[in-house]
Structures are given as C-alpha cells and as structure tokens.
Design a protein that fits this description.
The protein is of the alpha+beta class and about 425 residues long. The chain has helices spanning about 15-25, 50-60, 65-70, 105-120, 170-175, 245-260, 305-330, 335-360, 365-380, 385-390; strands spanning about 1-5, 10, 30-35, 50, 70-75, 75-80, 85-90, 100-105, 125, 130-135, 140-145, 150-160, 160-165, 180-185, 185-195, 205-210, 215-220, 225-235, 270-275, 280, 285, 290, 300, 425. It has ten helices and 24 strands. The strands form five sheets. A seven-stranded mixed β-sheet has the order 7-6-16-17-18-15-19. A six-stranded mixed β-sheet has the order 9-3-2-13-22-21. Keywords: FAD, Flavoprotein, Oxidoreductase.
Length: about 425
C-alpha cells in the first residue's frame, strides 16, 4: 500500500536539530512533516549543554523558560583538574554575569521541543519511518519513506527537504555529498550517564580533566544528581568502536571512581555509549531544494559542547531562510547564503576550537603542551578575554542569526591554529 503525502517542508530526522528546525517553521504557519527512523526519541548519552547564543534562539521561539525549568542553570563556571583531580584552574563566573549555560540531556530537550512542535498544529511527526530515496524535480522534491510499523510506503512531495538525520545521513548519501576531514582513529570515545551527589562536594557543574590517559569531562545533565562522564580509551584498529567490551567498561568506571571525591561505590550507572569521533564537514549543505544541518552536515568531537551548539544555530538560520522563501517570496539565494555561512562557521570556528579543546585535555606533543600552558596563563589574566572565551566556549562566534553585538572572532585567533595529530587519517568519508 502506498500513501500520498504533501507538505511544504519535510524534515528527515527527529533529533534536536530536526525538531528545532521544524518547530521554528511550524510556528511561522508552515506545514511540516518530520520522519524519524527510530520508534522513539533517542535516549543514548549525548549532548547536555546549551549556551547563550542557543538560549537566545530558544527565547525567540518561546521555549527558553521551559528549557531553564527542565534543566540546571550553570551560573557557577567550570574547573580544570589534573588526572589526580587536583585543581589546575578554577573559573568562577562573576555573580552578576548575565551569561550562563543550561545543562539538560538531549533526550529531555527533544521531548520538550517535540511537545512544543505538536502544539503548533502545523506538524506531523512520524516515527519508525525510514527514508528510502529522493528525487529532485523542477522546484520540488519527491521522496519515498518506508513505514516500518505498518509495512507500507509513503510517497511524499515537498518544496524543500531538510536532512537532519545524523552522521550516517541517508539524505546526504542520496545527494552524493561527501564528508571531508579526518577521524580520531586511535580513540574510542565513551559517554556515561550516572547519578551521584557530586555537588555536595562543592564541585561546579562542569569539570575538565587534563591527563594523557585519565582525561575527560564531568558535566551535569539536569537537576539533582544527574551527571555525564565523557572520556576516551586508546583502541586498536581491529576493535569495533560501535560496541563496548567489558574491559573498556571496567577502565571507564575505574577512571571515574578515581577522579571523583567521596564514596564512589555509591555511583549509580544508568547508560554507557561508545562513539567514534570525527572532525568532518559536508562538501555542500545545499543541493537545489535539499538542505543539510546538524550532524548530517558536520561532525566534531564533543569536548566543549560545540557540535550541538553549531547544529541548533544551523536550525535557526535555516528556518529563517525557509520562512523568507515560503512566506515572503524571497529568492532561494537566501538558502545558498545559509549553506555557505554555516559551512564556513563550522570549518573556521567549530572545527578548530573543538579540536583544540580535546588536544588541551590529553595531547603530549610539545606544541600542544605549549598551547595548554599559554591557555592557562591567559585564564589567569582575565582582563584580556571575556568569560566565554576563557571557558573555551566562544559560542556567539558560532551564530549567524544573533542580534547580540558581542563577537569573539578576533579574540580567539590565538588558539585556533590547529595541527592535525600525527598519524591520524585525512580523507573523504562516507559511512
């Protein structure tokens, strides 16, 4: 059985970027359909932090208060510690600083965004629907989606199709668009959700551990005792990075127990997930009436939270362009502007800064050690840089839709000169 389906916009992928894009479009009165391969929202450990430039977009969308209510506001700052948890540098936010981050797990944000989207009455969200293929017409896109629950097919038509379907994006592959960049081949990245009363020991909502082996990040993922630990374990090329073996799990748990204070036998583990991490960018974000955003367009390591930040800011710019074209009869050139500006943001800002963030934690090369020393020396001279740059989170330099005047493009040039780690691959990539 084949079902016909027509809406002005179709979004493939119901992650945070897809749902936020759809929400912004639907709030403008444009009908949108979101197709998700999974049967439910992804519950695996993923991003947890939402920074001021993203919070500004949430405010425009009318969901900021809901996000703040659901999450935990980090107004305290962050710390850097060594591999024995000794303090290297405490960065405490001024009491009157208006900028803060909200700590909230990605699944909880997705639920919040989904609820807001459905309340617009301009959206349908269909789970267990997998994109099979697409074809571009003169000024529209035809696509075929398999309804896996009912074993039937949807034949859809839309003016614009948006691919927010992650690193293995079917949309991107259908376009023949490649990912340029490299993979951190020597690392198996592991994210761990856990419950522990860490705040009772006076620890801030975010801590970075600097050590060639026991490096990592511990960050809150919501109210109460919800925390996330992210770290990396050296792996052999023969190991399956998509699966966690018992030895790796033991290494990660032992590391966390050694880094945290108190009776760590009381840690309650909830979920562990392995990742292969990349620094990659799609060669094109727009191919006629199909557009890419979020992980479908770019991939970077998660240290510093810039991947989700960049993706949500993609959504803000893309939705603005689609609204101009569909409601104001603007030239489709505004979508080309989206594609070019957002690609430049990733290549020139997100990619180099996130690379530096990771190397700062674990690299042993003399060049990176010198950069690390310079970084901490700069932190000790707060007159030179804003709090955002000090914390390694210059997120307003990632936005192309902000009304804020603050810009850190000139201020960050000192630490975004990146040398690719020796022996790590550089090639066109397609999973």
């Amino acid at each position: 059985m084949v079902t016909k389906w027509t809406t002005p916009v179709a979004v493939i992928g119901a992650g945070p970027v897809g749902l936020f894009t759809a929400l912004l479009i639907a709030q403008a009165g444009i009908k949108v359909t979101v197709f998700e391969t999974g049967s439910n929202l992804d519950r695996s450990p993923r991003a947890v932090a939402y920074f001021p430039a993203v919070l500004e977009e949430f405010s425009k969308a009318g969901i900021l208060e809901a996000v703040k209510e659901a999450g935990d506001n980090n107004t305290e700052g962050c710390d850097w510690r060594d591999g024995k948890a000794n303090m290297l540098f405490p960065l405490t936010a001024p009491p009157d600083d208006p900028n803060f981050a909200v700590c909230l797990s990605q699944p909880e944000f997705c639920k919040l965004a989904l609820d807001a989207l459905l309340k617009t009455d301009n959206a349908d969200v269909l789970s267990s629907h997998h994109l099979q293929r697409l074809e571009q017409r003169d000024d529209s896109v035809s696509y075929w989606v398999q309804d896996q629950a009912n074993s039937c097919e949807i034949e859809g038509t839309c003016r614009y199709l948006v691919g927010t379907d992650g690193a293995r994006s079917t949309v991107r592959k259908s376009l023949g668009v490649k990912l340029e960049g490299y993979t951190w081949d020597s690392l198996q990245f592991v994210a761990v959700n856990f419950q522990y009363a860490l705040s009772d020991f006076g620890w801030k909502p975010a801590t970075f551990f600097v050590d060639p082996i026991d490096w990592g990040i511990v960050v809150k993922r919501g109210k109460g005792t919800k925390w996330r630990f992210a770290t990396g374990v050296q792996k052999e090329h023969t190991q399956n990075a998509a699966a966690l073996d018992e030895a790796t799990i033991a290494v990660v748990k032992d590391r966390l127990c050694r880094l945290l204070p108190g009776d760590t036998s009381k840690i309650e583990y909830e979920a562990l997930a392995p990742y292969t991490i990349h620094q990659r960018c799609a060669t094109h974000y727009r191919v006629r009436n199909v557009l890419l955003a979020g992980d479908a367009a770019h991939l970077n390591n998660p240290v510093g939270g810039l991947g989700l930040t960049t993706g949500l800011l993609d959504a803000a710019h893309l939705a603005d362009g689609l609204k101009q074209v569909l409601l104001e009869a603007a030239s489709p050139d505004v979508l080309t502007e989206y594609a070019e500006k957002r690609r430049a943001i990733f290549r020139d800002v997100t990619d180099p800064i996130s690379t530096e963030n990771l190397l700062r934690l674990m690299s042993t090369s003399p060049t990176d050690i010198k950069k690390r020393e310079d970084f901490f020396a700069t932190l000790r001279n707060p007159k030179e840089f804003s709090l955002k740059v000090q914390a390694g989170l210059p997120d307003f330099s990632l936005t192309t839709t902000s009304s804020a005047k603050f810009s850190v493009h000139q201020e960050i040039t000192w630490f975004i000169s990146v040398t690719k780690p020796d022996g790590w691959t550089t090639e066109i990539f397609e999973q």
